[in-house]
Structures are given as structure tokens and as C-alpha cells.
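User: For my dataset I need records formatted as: sequence, then C-alpha cells, nothing else. Please produce one.
Assistant:
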Amino acid sequence: MARRTPRNALSDRARTPRTLSGFLKTASICVLIAGLLSPLTQAAAAGTPAAAPNDYCGGQCSDILPPGENGNATLAQILLNQAFGTQPDHAEDQLGPYANLATGYTGLTDAKINTFFNDSSFGVPADQVASTEKPAGRTDVSIVRDKKTGVPHITGTTRYGTEFGAGYAAAEDRLWLMDLFRHVGRGQLTTFAGGALANQGLEQQFYRSAPYTEADLQAQIDSAVARGGDRGQQALGDANAYLDGINSYIDASDKGRYFPGEYVLTGHKDSITNAGTIDHFKITDLVALASVVGALFGSGGGGEVDNAVSLLAAQSKYGITEGTKVWESFRERNDPEAVLTVHDGESFPYGTRPADAKGEALPDPGSVVQEPLVYDRTGSAGSASAKSASTTAAKTTLGSAKRGMSNALVVSGAHTASGHPVAVFGPQTGYFAPQLLMLQEIQGPGISARGASFAGLSMYVELGRGQDYSWSATTSGQDIIDSYAVELCQDDYHYLYHGTCTAMEQIEQKNAWKPTVADGTAAGSYTLRVWRTKYGPVQYRATVGGKKVAYTALRSSYFHEADSIIGFQMLNDPDYVKGPEDFQKAAQHINYTFNWFYADSRHTAYYNSGDNPVRADGVDGEFPAWGRADYEWRGWNPAGNTADYTPASAHPRSIDQDYYISWNNKQAKDYAAAPWGEGSVHRGDLLEDRVSKLAAAGGVTRTKLVQAMAGAALADLRAEDVLPKLLKVVNSSPVTDSTAASAVSKLQAWVTAGAQRKETSAGSKKYADADAIRILDAWWPLLVKAEFEPGLGTDLFSAFTTNLPVDEAPSAGHGPTGSHAGSSFQYGWWSYVDKDIRSVLGESVQGPLARTYCGDGSLTACRDALISTLKQAAGRTAAQVYPGDDQCSAGDQWCADSIAQRTLGGIKHGKISWQNRPTFQQVVEYTSHR
């Protein structure tokens, strides 16, 4: 079956590269299309699918994954898309329903849910079969695709055939994307896809945190298989069958000339002679792909050096004792007002502050220097913009403010109308074209599941449903990364390890690129070089007490990127997961940091996964520790980077709590996470406030829970939870200034209307309460600076903003997620503002900041500062607040917020209105159980 093909990874913006646009203007499109259209047609063999396997959801399971299942496009399809906007079949048919929920959710009913979602029942009704194929002519597997979405439904009679089919279907839908990311995982993206700045930044981001040799990748496979016993052997067999399926499709598409057109546009294939090759996939590619996924979404921690720098700044400002107190109040390790996922009061201590800290290796003030990654720049790699891309990539990698994203709303059957649990959950993996995830159904011996998997790792469903249960995840962020200070000896590339001067290991990757049709970036090259120690890669250099040190980063999942495969295998196995306890046991085998949620017809459950290292007594994971035996993880063996990990009983977990919410918030009492900002106001509160009210009222339905999610997805966290308190200060005396009074009136009206960023009507591309939104977007950074910088001082204020960005509004490209990415309001100073303003108002605050900052505690002075900055904000034009970018004109507020499907290939899509919502999402309510 000749499927479509993907696009070129040349930009992080959903714009056609200028070089490709120019090519389309000068090329004879008609001649090209005439020569390339023939491979697009394929015999879609009519067929009747096998009867749907045991499905206990009763038609009440749904899912959605924009923009569409089809992530491959031939050269002809790419040219048609770029010239005329034509979309390949199923390339964006899930984008419209996904986008329309923003304006359609208020009128939602259970009967209308699948207007905005797909029916995720098992199987395909006979009248909805679009095609049936036997990949490579095999008789032990078939791939059925449905008419509505083109999702592959893979059914095998043998385990090998089933996984072969999964690999074949993955290549049909995401071959180009899979190829991109196996190169990203090796730090080779620019050589493969071109030297665009986005490509440089992406490969640098991942190479810094996961620099592996080919031998390292193979060793991880060997280790995971050996440790997994029988299941490890099964996983290896599944992976090899999956790879055979991928490679079979590569051979077939190459011979039939319907491979992804990006291979032509990037110079890997010739459109006329078909010269060139598409390299087969191998087992180590799966580890390279897994390292990217784990680093993006499942590796909590880092930021210890930044923490040390801000602590030193606080101590310099206030003295050791008071400075430490101030620092701890901003850190909010265990804030009593933080929203919790496990809210029954059970404590799960981890990452707490030791009573008597030992082994801290704080740098001498001003001595910290970031370790270079890029060397020997030539050509375009030496430009100022290329160096800026490197700076951004390093900041993304080294800080603790990782991409969190993803949310979950799960309500126990005791509070639903049907008596069965209801769940609305999914991961926020960003918006890409094609999407990083792909949908599929897999049915075969020992496997029965439908849902989403990361492209190239889809031998199992990673987030989805089984026969009578569903599961999903959010990023958790507990700290599994520690920084060690290794004392240098002999020179800058030797360090003391257990008293012996030991050479660092040099790992490097040389990359070079030249212009192609897809990416016109001028020729250039550089070398990525990492110095590796037994304590992990070097990230910074400094002095401690005058001694030269290197600061490393040791991650518990480093050299264990493949270990989670056993947990996913279990989740797909209907003979293994038969209830919430089995689900929790399966999740225990996932070594990345995630919150896992479960629902069947009778139970709900939650489990926090990750290999949490057991630290030595007295070691505070917030700061760098000396690289010495006394301060190493307990049981640590550098040979395979193994250690003692906290037992399952120490991980936040629960069964049948009244409800669960998660939006990357704090998991449970006393369970500290690496990112800052888990205080009194968190975006998790947007879910908590809505779901707690629903559960208390009872009678929860799928519709009500979707509406709660969708309402929160449009909410401005600052406006809903902090602005009313700011206005309370402002209105503590009559507002006589006309500019300020007008702004206050608009802001109050917006709060009264619900504090949402929503269109006036579907497709209007204009916000209701547009002026109020503009004012708050301009006011927030101004008020935060005016509120805190005078008291903290410039140095400490700046250091704290490194730990935690001030703002992450949808249009705030300075946030860790970036512009046009949907996910918003995870990281910001909303909790600080909330606690400080309440203190000024004389209200009760649990876990207050160590000092009151706004107006130095004076209500009058605080009010003056707020009104002054409010007047400044009100005077800023839309063009000043939303200055425009390569997506939007200056002043276009809706566009500044809008979500773009960031191109990773040749097919582009239009922007959609902002929603703060999972990318892949399930709505489930099971009616029965096995």
C-alpha cells in the first residue's frame, strides 16, 4: 500500500522555507507532478476486518491527535501543498475537530463528543474500511485503515507478524520523522537535514544531555534485555520484528518510488534517477529515539548550579542565615498551599531539605562558566545567529524548567452519573507537522491496545487503552539528576575519582551541511564535543574554595534509555493488566519521570514512575555535591550507572481517590520536584477548582469533565487566580486617574466574564475582552519587576528569574515552551505575586515569602507601584505588546497566541486558536469489565 510521505526538519516555524518557496516558483510543477503522480495510486484492497476483539468500553472511548494520522507525503504531494495548499489524505483531518472544541465545548453533550474526538472503539466497522493490506505479502498480519482518520488497525496471528505490521505501519505514516529523530538522538541532524538554526539548536540540546557512542547505544539494549528476563527477550524479539517491518516498507517505497519527498528535497534521493539510499533502521536507532523522548518529557531534575548561584546571591544580599531563609521561601519545596494530585494527606517524602546538609560544593561567586559544546565552527555555523541558537539550546538543557505539559482529570465512579469512572487525559507533546505521536491499534498474541505512540517506538501503544482499561501520563519532574563537583588534576581534562587522577572521556560528533532545496542555509560545519566523567557529562566549570572543578550532570536514566520498554509491554498485555494494582506494577517498570493515571469500569488509580536515586545521608539534591564516595548515590556503580532506588511504596500512588488532577503540579505532600513554582497558584489549580466542584456535586459525565478541561484550556491563570487580588489592592482607595480607572474597569469586566482568552465567535480571530488581555499581558512583567526588584536587588532578582521565568503567557516566546506552542502558564511568578499581595492585604498566608516585597509591605506604596505600572501597560499599543514574528504581523493579538503546527517536513498547516490542552487526548468511560 503506497502511503504518503513526511517533511523537512528545517525550521521550528510552520512556514515554508524561503528556499523551498523559491524553488516552487521557478520549477515546472506540472512536469514534476506528472512524473510523480503514478506511485500515489495504490490498490486499496477491499476487505472485511476481523471482528473487533473484546471491547468493554461500550462505544464510550474516544481520542484525538492533530493534525492527522498521515505524516508521510511524496514529493508530488509536498509540491501541491506548497503551491496550492492541498493536503494529502488524513494529513490534517483531526486538526479541525480538535480546534473546534474551543468554541464548541459549552454546547457539548455526550452524543456530540465524537464531533470533536474520534471513536476509539476496537476494530473497524465493515462499512468504514478504507483499505486492507498484507504488508510484504505476509499472511500472519493485516493492516486495516478506517475511512474517517486513516488510523492503522494492525491484527496479527503471530507475535512476529503483529510487530512486523506495527513497524510497517509506522514507516507508512512517519518514516521521515523517524529518520529525523534517530539523527537528533545521535547529534547528527544538521548533516542529515540541513544547517537551519532550529536544527542546530535541536541536535545540540539533546547531545549535551545524552552523548552516546554507537557502542553505548548497543550496551543499553543488551543491559535492558538481560535485566528484563523473559520479558526482555520478548522485547528484543518484538523490536527486531518491528525493525523488519520498517525496513520492508523502506525497500518497497524505494522500489515503488513513493517514499517521503523530503528525501529528495534534502538531497538524499534523486527525483529523476532514484539514485541515493534511505538507510535501514537498526536496533540502536530505537535507543537514540528513546533518548530524545526521555529527555523531552521524562527526565526531571537539573538546575543545581543555577540554584547555587541564586542562593549565593541571596546570601550576599541578606547574609547567610537570612539569605538562606529568603531563598527557601522562593524555592517552595513543600509549599502547604500547593495543589496536589494525591490530596488525601498521605506523605511521600523525597527531595526534602536535610536537617544538616553535607558535601555541598557551592561555587566561588562569579566563577561559574558554562562548558562549551560547539567547537571548530566554519561557514554559517560561525554566524551570530548560530551562536545565539547554541545559547538557547544550552539554557533549555541545563535548567530545571523542563517542558512539563500534559494534564489529567479522573473522577471515581462514586461521583459520576453512571457509577463508572470517567477520565479525560493526555500528554501535551507540542504541535508538529507531522506530530511526534501516531495513533494505532495493535491486536495480536499478548497485545491488545489502541492509542498513541512516539513515531519509531510504536512496537507498543504507550498511551491509550486496553480491552477494559485506559491509561495516560503527565510529566512529573521529580529530581533524578544530580550535579557533582569533580576536582581537577593535572589539567582541565583530568579529575580526581576516589583519589586517583582520571582522564575524562572525550565524545564528539563532527557535522557539516550544505544548501539543499529544503534548507538553503549556507554551508557550514562544527564539532559537538562533550567531556564525560564517571559522574556524567561536564556541564560547567568553576572554582570552589579556589580549587578548579568541573560540574557534571548525573541522570539515573542515563545509559538506561531502553529500560522502560518492559513497562510498556506490560501495559499492552491483557493477560497482565487486569486491575489497578497490575497497572501500578507495570508503571513501576518505567524509569522516566511520569505521573501515570488509570481508569476502568470500577476503579481509578495513580502512580508516579521514575528511578529515584537514594542519596547519601545529608546530601541536598538542590545543590552540587562533591564527587566523592561519601556523597554518591547509595549503591552507585559507575560501570552501568546503577544505584539504589526508592521502593515503589515511597512513590506517590493511590487507588480510588475521589478524583485526580494533574497538570505537572506537585504530586503529594512532602514530595519535592526539581522545577520551581509549585506554590499557591499553579495551573493545576485551574483543574482542581473545576473538578473538585464537579466531584462534590456528583453526577459527573464525560461531557461535564470535557467541559471542565476545555474551560481550563482557555483560562488565563493570572487573570483567574491572581488578578482579583491585585485589583483588591488597586481598589483599596478610589482610582482617580482616568487611564488607570479605565484599565481597572476592563480588567474587572474580564474577570467577571470568566478570565478566558477566547474568540468572540468561532473563526473570528478576535478575542472577547481583547483590551483587558492586552493590558494584563503588558502589565504582568512590569508589575513583577516593580513589586520584587526593589526589595531583592537587581542581582538576586535576575538570579531568581533564571530559576523561574516571570511569565509564560501564550504569546510569551521567552517562556521555556516558546511561542505558538499552546502550553502556557506552567512557569511564572504567579505564586510569588499571590503570596506577597495577600501579605500586603493582611490576609492569611501559609508558607509565606520570607519578606513582604510590594511597597516594602505598605499597602499605600504597593498600590502606587501597581497603579504606576498599570498606567504604563495601558499605554502600550497592541503592536508593542505583540511585536510580530515570522508567523504574525505586529499587533495581531489572536495570531500571537495562536498554535502553529511546527514543520518537521514538507507539509504545512494553518494556525488554530489558542488552547492550553493535551495534544493527544482520551475521553473514556468503561461500561463493563472482564
